[in-house]
Design goal:
Layout lengths: L5 E5 L3 H13 L3 E5 L2 H11 L3 E5 L7 H11 L4 E6 L4 H9 L4 E4 L4 H58 L8 H31 L8 E4 H18 L3 E5 L6 E4 L1 H17 L6 E9 L2 E8 L22 H4 L7 H11 L3 E7 L3 E9 L1 H10 L1
Parallel strand pairs: 1-2, 1-3, 3-4, 4-5, 7-9
Antiparallel strand pairs: 6-8, 9-10, 10-12, 11-12
Bound molecules: adenosine-5'-diphosphate (ADP).
The site of adenosine-5'-diphosphate (ADP) has 22 residues, from helix 8 and helix 10.
Length: about 375
Amino acid sequence: MSDSKTILVVDDEEPIRDSCKQVLSKAGYDCHTATDGIEGLHIAHQIEPHLVLLDLMMPGIDGLEVLTQIRKTHPQTVCIVITGYATIESAVDAMKHGAFDFLPKPFTPEELRLKVVRGLEQHRLLAETVSLREEKERMQQYFITIVAHELRSPLLLVKQYLDLIVGGKMGKVDETASEMLEGAHSTLTGLLQLIADWLKLARINAGDIAGGMVDADARPILEKATGDLTSYAESKDVRLILACPSEPCPLCAHAESLEVVLKNIMSNAIKYNRKGGTVTVRGEVADGRLQIDIIDTGMGIPEHEIPFIFEDFFRVKNSKMASIPGTGLGLSIVKKILEGHHGTVEVESKVDEGTKFSVFLPLVCELHTGEEEN
Ligand code: ADP
């Protein structure tokens, strides 16, 4: 029943150590003992016990310090503190430091067994949670690989063939076939955009951003995003204007992802604009943060829809929107990337007048101050 579960008893009182060892060994546990905190930490390091029974009041380093160190080095080990009746407050304190339960002295063999059974059940649940999380991450990674290689690559190849035919590079195609091929081409383009957006989202969820945060100036990122979208704006007859801040804007950022944020909002501002309209991108430093406004003169968003636009796959449903391609994932990506940058986004909009997205990002000094306070 209790086969190979390992328990460590750390207590400076010999009678307690001996009686715990006797009761627990009899119940079939592999029980070890230590006479003080230093020895306890040493043995815990060697045997990685499932459960530690820990006296709080010991000479030398006290139980709370031992508890803190075990929680740090062996987070899956469950700790139960042994306390004198009068030290119930320190037991509560120990629980705040990560102890699972406490056992007041004096205790009977039955009370000891009960606490240990509950503690080991907690250990089993913790181990199960960790292995399920690892399994989920493995599956997610596997799915990303499958979508990226097995689905996206062959579709890209088909699109390249269609690019040639629809672009007239393969000679004349009869009118009906040409219409069908154009339909197939535009459906495939939408599908590939959906896959690209989904992959971005999956990679962000898999923690891709956190690994690549570096000190960066926001201005070249703003300039690049605007430059890359200039020809798209021209093709839609929309004027794209950038007003960059004159002073440096030092950020702790994943530059590539931040560019995605700006491009997603800017391309929407172009896509949902009117012919002859404008998109103004304006950066400003104030109160230790960078504010980037992206203001368009487009169709606007109905007020009651604004709370939903950052949700996965959400698109405003109306007759104008139906003909505009999109995946409903662009703003969801924006929100997740900004969360990874301690940033926020706000939206103001008026139907048929336009929309203003304001992105707020903490400047480097602010970011560091915040971390130190935590
Ligand atoms: P999509 O791929 O559909 O553009 P997004 O997640 O980028 O998806 O945006 C979600 C929805 O928010 C869009 O479908 C659109 O209805 C609305 N939206 C976003 N930006 C604007 C904008 N600048 N003007 C009007 N509507 C917008």
